[in-house]
Design brief:
The complex is a heterodimer of chains A (234) and B (269). Chain A contains 10 helices and no strands. By secondary structure, chain A is an all-alpha fold. Chain A has a single domain, classed as MetI-like fold, CATH 1.10.3720. The chains are: A mainly alpha (234), B alpha/beta (269).
Chain lengths: 234, 269
């Protein structure tokens, strides 16, 4: 109990004093995970919808793969992106290894399957319900896709939040492609890992509490936004 | 296609990069022992103030740091495994290896000391006693400089740690996590003095053996060979290399202390 209360007081201290170093770390975490989720949403939502609405041979296999990739191990994705961006690798000349950009790339790959797989399910369910109607109204392919995505927006928001949770919580990928460089690529999770290795457990746990609070805050914000939108649109 | 991808990535990195002009920096692959002791927090600001060059440290085990250098993912190295360093240079991956500093390893263990090694001055004898007592020993097991040194000590003690028996536990972890685990299971461990001095979760662990020549731990600075990787930032990396091994760097190393104790001793020639 004393460990936890110590962690709580460390966390409160960091938040109340607005420790500039911690603010930088929090900002980077939100920036990297936020951008990764944004990119994954831009690609994953249409991708999931297309997969739900189209028929082609091997579609079942693609769906299974996509669902399985929701559980991609972050270290493996990190390693893959590292090999890609390493100066000895195919995209080495871009000089992106150990930068926030590399971290966004890795997290996008992690989040994409989650968003796409959940979007596919949502759109497929809606299609079952409204397919007949849309067909009789003569709505074309792209029209169907947009209509169903819009119709399922509240469920899709949950998919996006699941993706954000995944990105904000992972440490394996950002550690490898970011390198945990102080002031450049050090995020909440890599800081927690570092402080744990230094044996400063109260600080590590305090940072952990801040991270959990932050993710809760984001979820609360989205929840309230959803409620407001629902009320307005009836 | 590849060019398009590179262009897209360049554009995208502009969006992520913090505001401000292109920064001048080098990437230094170094070890967890130097990073976690806080040495870099002491050295790097001084170097940056003088030269304007930011040093970005990727702290990993020495084995992995050498690998990063091999692939050209770092511009310079600061590591501690003389045999590995010489091989790295001999294979043409690195140039101009120089002595930088040294500190020493300490054998830590539980206060109860089941192998009875406390106060000894002979690390090899202490290791032999630990093996005879089959007392738990937490090994880094991560191909780091400390791990390589530990294996050399076992070899000198003529103990075959691969024989098993459950007392020798390979963790595959950095120095700090290994100490966390050793503290948790009352195990002996080999630690570098820097990490030990700044380590906070000691529980019942204490230094039991120190001051043996066999525990000497020298660090070397190596430049990654620009002939292997064109993108290596030769000039700035060399500025760091020369500063670190020059009078200013050496003075900065000597002035780094934790609780009044000097942790690294410059020995550049």
């Amino acid at each position: 109990m004393s460990d936890l209360s110590q962690a709580l007081s460390v966390a409160l201290d960091l938040v109340l004093t607005l420790d500039p170093q911690m603010l930088g770390i929090v900002r980077l975490s939100v920036q990297v995970s936020g951008l990764a989720v944004l990119l994954a949403g831009l690609i994953g939502l249409p991708l999931g919808a297309v997969l739900a609405l189209s028929a082609f041979p091997g579609r079942g296999a693609v769906v299974v793969m996509l669902n399985a990739f929701m559980g991609l191990p972050p270290v493996v994705v990190g390693l893959g992106v590292y090999l890609l961006l390493s100066r000895a690798g195919p995209l080495g000349e871009a000089g992106l290894l150990f930068t926030p950009t590399a971290m966004v790339m890795a997290q996008t790959l992690l989040v994409l399957p989650i968003v796409a797989a959940l979007a596919r399910q949502v759109v497929a369910d809606l299609w079952e319900e409204y397919g007949e109607q849309l067909r009789s109204l003569g709505v074309s392919g792209v029209g169907r896709l947009v209509t169903l995505l819009w119709d399922g927006r509240f469920s899709l928001l949950t998919a996006i939040l699941a993706g954000f949770g995944r990105a904000a919580a992972e440490v394996g990928a950002v550690m490898i492609v970011g390198g945990n460089i102080k002031g450049v690529t050090r995020t909440m999770t890599t800081t927690i890992a570092l402080e744990t290795s230094k044996g400063d457990l109260p600080l590590a746990m305090g940072l952990g509490l801040i991270l959990i609070a932050l993710v809760t805050l984001v979820n609360a914000g989205v929840f309230l936004m959803g409620q407001w939108a629902r009320r307005r649109m009836g | 296609m590849k060019r398009l991808l590179l262009a897209a990535m360049a554009l995208f990195s502009l969006a992520v990069a913090p505001a401000g002009a292109e920064e001048r920096f080098i990437t230094l692959a170094s070890t967890t022992s130097t990073e976690q002791s806080g040495l870099f927090g002491h050295l790097l600001p001084a170097f940056k103030a003088e030269t304007g060059i930011e040093v970005r440290v990727v702290a990993v085990g020495t084995g992995q740091a050498l690998k990063l250098g091999e692939r050209g993912d770092a511009d310079a190295l600061l590591v501690h495994d003389r045999a590995g360093e010489d091989k790295f240079v001999a294979e043409g991956f690195g140039i101009d290896r120089r002595d930088v500093m040294y500190n020493d390893f300490v054998v830590v263990g539980p206060a109860s000391d089941p192998a009875g090694i406390k106060g000894g001055k002979d690390a090899v004898a202490a290791f032999a006693k630990i093996a005879v007592a089959k007392a738990p020993f937490a090994s880094r097991g991560d191909d780091s400089g400390t791990h390589r040194s530990e294996l050399r000590l076992w070899k000198k003690a003529e103990v075959d740690v691969k024989a098993g028996g459950g007392w020798y536990r390979e963790l595959g972890a950095g120095m700090g996590p290994t100490l966390n685990t050793a503290a948790g299971m009352n195990a002996y461990a080999l630690a570098d003095r820097g990490t030990w001095a700044s380590f906070k979760n000691r529980q019942s662990l204490a230094i039991l053996v120190e001051g043996d020549r066999a525990l000497f731990n020298p660090y070397g600075s190596i430049l990654v060979n620009p002939e292997k990787h064109k993108a290596v930032k030769v000039a700035d990396a060399k500025a760091w290399h020369l500063w670190l091994t020059g009078p200013k760097g050496q003075a900065a190393i000597a002035s780094f202390k934790i609780d009044g104790e000097q942790l690294f001793f410059g020995d550049a020639k």
